[in-house]
Amino acid sequence: MPDRSDQPAPGPLAGLRVIDCSTVLAGPYCTMLLGDLGAEVIKVEPPEGDATRGWGPPWVGTVEAGTRTAAYYLAVNRNKRGLRLDLKIPDGAAILRRLLADADVLVENFRGDGFSRLGFDDETLRALNPRLVHLAISGYGTTGPAADRPGYDFIVQAVSGLMSITGAAEAEGGEPTKVGVAISDVLTGMLGAVGLLGALVGRERGAAGTAGDGQRVDVSILGATLASLVNQAQNAFVSGSAPGRLDNAHPNIVPYETFETADGALAVAVGSERQWPRLCAALGLDGLAADPRFATNGDRVDNRAALRPILAGAFATGTTADWIRALDAAEIPCGPINDILDAFASPEAVALGMTVEQEHPAYGAIRQVGLPFQLAATPATIRTPPPTLGQDTDAILGELGYGPMEIAGLRASGVV
């Protein structure tokens, strides 16, 4: 019997089969998380491929070799096998039905009733595989006036209110600003994973309403973004007023923001009353701690306009490195404002293993973001790089029972 002691332990989702019919970011991010946790993920792409393959530069591969792909695609498609499939052709839909008959999870983000019109409505899916957990991702949900609208992260950041609280302060003429990453899509992918994992647990436990079967799980980009507003939404509900933009300041904690230094800028977070007098001492402003205007966090929030110039004047007298040393010694949370390359090169990120390198058969060495979670007994792993378009088509079709001549015919007719 071969020695497998040097092989990674299977992840907690090992043995789970996921069919990923989603494209762009929210769905592929969700299924990548499942793949990192050990699930077998088959990425089903349309003949032209996932749109993100063309969202460059930057690029990997070359046009001459027929392998050029955008870096964007690489970000969310590792630990997947690739199947190129035209679902608009009956033979293509038949292949997907074979895949779903033995799958645990289906993830798709077709607009409106697009998936149903291809022959995969809820009743058909239940008849095909009662144990299937079907995650449907939409822009605005399946009911309501926007149910048929496409969901774009940028637009949802605007209509959800997220953009209204992001950016330079309104008092300084700041305009609403999107977050620098497609955060609404990322949140949707994460919450989609939470929802379908809950459905899988319910299925295995035979929870009420499932009788051991799967179920449909819906998550919308708008709903996920609204849910992410947490304290800002609650502030609005309680006060009756919509919060505005505060630049990098916190609506409920002061000081909790960035300050310019003699050579850059610094993020400072005073998260408890015990930290406040220590900050004052580190800045050489001992008397400030006794000022009744700033005695408690509530006082400081009410009087932030008076407090900020005092703190800003003090921070401007030293360098970022000097203040980090002083605040670290005083046990005040702080940090430099890194760019992305600096962030991943930091000792903290290196210790977390947040950069990994893989050898891709078409693109050579590629660096990727590491795993964000660590499981002691069943660790997540990065096993395979993102597939080229249709990379595993023949192998997957062979596993489904298609012979070489059938596969050649499907390829000749443009089904795969």
Would you kindly provide a brief summary of this structure?
With 416 residues, the chain is an alpha/beta fold. It is built from 17 helices and 13 strands. A 6-stranded parallel sheet has the order 5-2-1-6-7-8. Strands 9-10-11 form a 3-stranded antiparallel sheet, with helices on one face.
Describe the structure.
This protein has helices at 26-36, 71-74, 90-101, 114-117, 122-128, 153-159, 183-205, 221-227, 230-239, 275-282, 297-302, 304-315, 320-329, 340-345, 347-352, 393-399, 404-412, and strands at 17-20, 40-45, 59-60, 69-70, 81-84, 105-108, 133-138, 216-220, 256-260, 265-269, 334-336, 355-360, 364-369. The protein is of the alpha/beta class and 416 residues long. A hairpin with a 4-residue loop joins β9 (256-260) and β10.
What are the SSEs and their pairings?
Layout: E1 17-20, H1 26-36, E2 40-45, E3 59-60, E4 69-70, H2 71-74, E5 81-84, H3 90-101, E6 105-108, H4 114-117, H5 122-128, E7 133-138, H6 153-159, H7 183-205, E8 216-220, H8 221-227, H9 230-239, E9 256-260, E10 265-269, H10 275-282, H11 297-302, H12 304-315, H13 320-329, E11 334-336, H14 340-345, H15 347-352, E12 355-360, E13 364-369, H16 393-399, H17 404-412
Parallel strand pairs: 1-2, 1-6, 2-5, 6-7, 7-8
Antiparallel strand pairs: 3-4, 9-10, 10-11, 12-13
Instruction: Describe the strand arrangement of the main beta sheet, using strand numbers.
Output: 5-2-1-6-7-8
Number of strands: 13
Compute the CA-based radius of gyration. Answer: 26 Å
Number of helices: 17
Instruction: Report the mean per-residue pLDDT as an integer.
Output: 94
**Gap from first CA to last CA:** 38 Å
User: H/E series, N to C?
Assistant: EHEEEHEHEHHEHHEHHEEHHHHEHHEEHH
- Most strands sheet: 6 strands, parallel
Inertia-based shape: elongated
- Strand content bin: 5-15%
Unreliable residue stretches: 1-5
Fraction of helical residues: 25-40%
Class by alpha and beta content? alpha/beta
